[in-house]
Design goal:
Order of helices and strands: EHHEEEEEEH
Mean pLDDT: 94
Low-confidence stretches: none
Shape: globular
Number of helices: 3
Largest sheet: 7 strands, antiparallel
Number of strands: 7
Strand content: 35-45%
Amino acid sequence: MNLIAKATIQIQKPIEEVFEGIVNPEKMTNYFISESSGRMETGKELIWKFPEFPVEVPIKNIQIEINHSISYVWDPKTVVKIILEEQPDKSTVIKVTEDGKTYNEANLKWAIGNTEGWANFLACMKAYLEYGIQLRKGAFDFMREN
C-alpha cells in the first residue's frame, strides 16, 4: 500500500494566472520558495531554496501541460502532481498529490507532515494570488537552525 499526501483548494483567479503562479519563480518566491534556478518547464532540472532551511532541493523530471498540470520529483521515492481545473465561474481548483512511499510508521509521519505542508502551500498561494498577501513570510522562522 502506498501513502499519498494530498490537498485541494479553490482560488478565485483564472486558470492561466494560477498556472503562471506555480511555474514562474518570480511569483512562487512570494508564497513558497526563496529562490529557483529557473522557470518550471518540461524536461528542465531546477534547484529550489527555501527561506527556513539551509538546503538546495533538486527538482527533476518536470512535466508540464500548460494550464492543466505540473508534475516533478523532489524526493526520489515520490512524485508531486498538481492538477488545475477551471470552474464555470472562471476560478480554479488546484489538487496536489505526492505519492510513492510504502506504508510504515516513518512514512505515515511523512504523509501527515506533507499533507499539512501542501495545505499550507495552497493557502499561501491563494492569499498571494487573490490578495497579494505573503502568509509564509516569517511563518516558519522557528524552524531555522540556530
